[in-house]
Amino acid sequence: MQERHPNDYTLCIASIETVIATPDYIGQAPHHRDNFELVKYVSDMVVLVAVSAIPDEHGDYPVQSSYTITHHTLKRRLRKGHLKPHQ
Fold first, then answer.
1. Domain limits of the chain?
2. pLDDT for 3
3. Sheet holding 35-42, edge to edge
4. Quick one: fold of 9-80?
5. Using an 8 Å Cβ cutoff, are 83 and 71 in contact?
6. Which residue from 2, 46, 69, 87 has the least number of CB within 10 angstroms?
7. How would residue 5 be classed by pLDDT, with cut points 50, 70 and 90?
8. Mean pLDDT score of the chain, rounded to an integer?
9. Residue 29 pLDDT exceeds 90
10. Residue-level pLDDT at 6
11. Per-residue exposure over 4-14, b if at least 16 CB sit within 10 Å of its own CB, e if not
12. How many CA atoms within 13 Å lie on the side-chain side of 35?
């Protein structure tokens, strides 16, 4: 996460538990079928946390990555049905 998204790292690592516990949106990117995505507004940013849908040897679902997405990207993913509001 820190290597692939260094500009987002501080915000994402600070908010990762909140995003996982209370996401605004949940979905799956079509090109990442082994992960699901949790998305939440954090301040004025949109934070995405990608979690493996396949448990590890301990039965945990590891976080694969976390980064911010634009409001435009969020709207596009909602329109295409890749993300749905979490209730």
1. 9-80
2. 80
3. 63-69, 45-52, 35-42, 25-27, 83-85
4. Transcriptional Co-activator pc4; Chain A (2.30.31)
5. no
6. 87
7. confident
8. 93
9. no
10. 83
11. eeeebeebbee
12. 16
Rounded (5°) CA angle 17-51-77: 100
At 24, which amino acid appears?
D
Instruction: Give which of 29, 23, 44, 38 is closest to 77, Cα–Cα.
Output: 29
Return the ∠ at Cα 30 (arms to 21 and 11), rounded to 5°.
40
Q: Is the pLDDT of residue 59 over 90?
A: yes
Mean pLDDT for 56-60 is 95
Q: Which amino acid is at 82?
A: H
15 vs 39: CA distance, rounded Å = 11
Percentages helix, strand, coil for the chain (3-state, rounded to 5) are 25, 35, 40
DSSP state of 62: -
**What is the residue type of 69?**
I
